[in-house]
Amino acid sequence: MKYIIALLFLVAGLNSYAQEIETENLKKHVYFLANDKMKGRGTGSKQNLKAAKYIERKFKSYKLKPLGEKGYFQEFDAKVRKVKVQDSIRLARNVIGFLDNQASKTIIIGAHYDHIGEGKQGSSLADNSYGMIHNGADDNASGIAGLLELARVYSENKIKEPVNFLFIAFGAEELGLVGSRYFVNHPTYDLKHIHWMLNMDMIGRLNKESGVSIIGFGTSPAFETIFKGINPEQFVKYYTGYEGRGGSDQTSFYEKDIPVLFFHTGGHPDYHRPTDDADKVDYQSLKGILNLERAIIDGSFDIEVMPFRNTDKK
Ligand SMILES: [Zn+2]
Q1: Which of the pair, 158 or 200, is modelled with greater confidence?
Q2: CA of 296 to the centre of ligand 1 (A)
Q3: What are the angstrom distances between the C-alpha of 27 and each of 131, 161, 167, 303?
Q4: What is the whole-number distance in angstroms between the Cα of residue 8 and the centre of ligand 1?
Q5: 174: domain range?
Q6: Residue 308 included in any domain
Q7: Is residue 310 part of a domain?
Q8: Is residue 311 one of the residues assigned to a domain?
Q9: Rounded distance from Cα 5 to ligand 1 centre (Å)
Q10: Which pLDDT tens digit goes with each residue over 208-255?
Q11: If you measure from the C-alpha of residue 252 to the centroid of ligand 1, how many angstroms do you get, rounded to a whole number?
């Protein structure tokens, strides 16, 4: 009997472990992706491919269904702008995994995994940074760590949510949202079933006074209803903005009339510089942001998320 009780506790313990965001996992992902060995994950580099394969391995271990065109990968060409030599067209890829709950609607969770490499792509803000590794821990190993933990929690929680989840790690964001634009124009999943899209880009440097920025609040009237169900006392501080467009991959979905929310902890002196390192990420707050995201996601299950017709489309 004692053994059975001990076993029950063990099983309950394992279950609750699977349902929680773990800072140790977040750290592991960020330290792997933002290690010097990854050379800044510039598009077209072998380290960029290595990052894609890391995400692919995780998706596989969470038993997500591959929903790219070559397994989990969706390949496309991206123009890499070069500082001292000619521009070149290089192969890039999105990594796409599907959590199938046999529901009629699907939430997309996205983040980009590429960064600006060794300062040869022209987007470095540091002086004399040519050849220096830009680790991109906040931008955007933090968002990928978040994406992987959400994928793990939702696939291991033994709960069949009334929505499916499409997890997309975008390539070539730093070259102008190339991966997300490619996806919305060559979708591997029918976009008419998309409930809404959540994007994370730079969520590792929370300023506790101002809070995490969530823009896209105005892209559906439903977000007001969903946010009413959130008790701000229980989560990290946040503020909302109405615009759907702005600097990262959610823009591509917004332009297709898909409601979006974009999480971002804001700029800092290490932004697009070689000093954006893993030890500067606030993992505890990162976990807090992900728990806020989970509350918003879970609060949206039974609400119809209709887009506001956007009038400023390209
Ligand atoms: Zn970014």
Answers
A1: 200
A2: 22
A3: 26, 27, 20, 34
A4: 44
A5: 2-299
A6: no
A7: no
A8: no
A9: 48
A10: 999 999 999 999 999 999 999 999 999 999 999 999 998 899 999 999
A11: 14
Say whether pLDDT at 310 is over 80: no
Two structure tokens written together for 167: 């997890």
In the chain, % of residues over pLDDT 70: 92
Q: What is the pLDDT of residues 86-116, one digit of tens each?
A: 788 999 999 999 999 999 999 999 999 999 9
**Can you list the alpha helix ranges (DSSP code H) found in the chain?**
2-19, 23-33, 46-61, 142-156, 178-185, 222-228, 250-254, 283-299
**pTM to 2 decimals?**
0.92
Counted domains in the chain? 1
Question: What separation in Å is there between the alpha carbon of 1 and the centre of ligand 1?
Answer: 54
Rounded distance from Cα 44 to ligand 1 centre (Å): 17
Read off the tokens for 87.
């521009």
Tokens at 46, concatenated: 């072998």
- Is the separation of the CB atoms in 239 and 175 below 8 Å? no
Ligand 1 centre to CA of 241 (Å) is 18
Query: What's the gap in Å between 258 CA and the centre of ligand 1?
Result: 21
The domain spanning residue 28 has which CATH number?
Answer: 3.40.630.10
Cα-to-centroid distance, 173 and ligand 1 (Å): 7
Please check whether residue 258 lies inside any domain of the structure. yes
Name the residue type at position 132. Answer: M
